[in-house]
Amino acid sequence: MHSDNSMQMTAIDTTDGRRLRSERTREAIIASCTRLITDNGQPNANQIAAAALVGKRTVFQHFSSLDELFHACGYERVTEFRLLAASAA
């Protein structure tokens, strides 16, 4: 027999797993988009989805527009540069 506490932990674990998977997918989309921008200029949604190994719909589940995604790519790059500069200091 399951206690209420064990049922609650299972629900939390499932939610955390989904959140983690969602964060990984978002990171993969940003990384793929950044790589495509660096290599080829401004990519379209189909190219980004293919590079991230997700569907085009998934890209737009994480970002409301390509502009929002391109902004996230820029933000991620600035954050990386700041971390590199801080570690070099």
Q: How is this structure best described in words?
A:
With 89 residues, the protein is mainly alpha-helical. It has a single domain (4-88), classed as Tetracycline Repressor, domain 2, CATH 1.10.357.10. It has helices spanning 4-40, 45-52, 56-62, 66-88. Helix 1 (4-40) packs across helix 2, helix 1 (4-40) crosses helix 4 and helix 2 (45-52) crosses helix 3 (56-62). The longest helix has 37 residues, at 4-40. The protein starts with a helix and ends with a helix. The mean pLDDT is 85.
Task: Please specify the SSE layout and strand pairing.
Layout: H1 4-40, H2 45-52, H3 56-62, H4 66-88
Helix pairs in contact: 1-2, 1-4, 2-3
Overall pLDDT score: 85
What would you report as the Rg, rounded to the nearest angstrom? 17 Å
CATH topology, by name, is: Tetracycline Repressor, domain 2
User: What is the ordering of alpha helices and beta strands?
Assistant: HHHH
The CATH homologous superfamily is called Tetracycline Repressor, domain 2
Give the biggest sheet.
none
CATH class reads: Mainly Alpha
Which architecture per CATH?
A: Orthogonal Bundle
Number of helices: 4
Strand content: under 5%
β-strand number: 0
